[in-house]
Amino acid sequence: MIKLRRVVPPATVLLFTVALAVGATGWATGTDPLTDAGTLGTLAAVPLLYWVMITRTHEVTDQQLEKARQQGYVMAMDHVGRGLIDAPVPPSPGLCGHCGRHASPADVISLDERRRSGHNPKEKRTQTQ
Question: Which of 24, 89, 119, 127 is surrounded by the most beta carbons within 10 Å?
Answer without folding.
Answer: 24
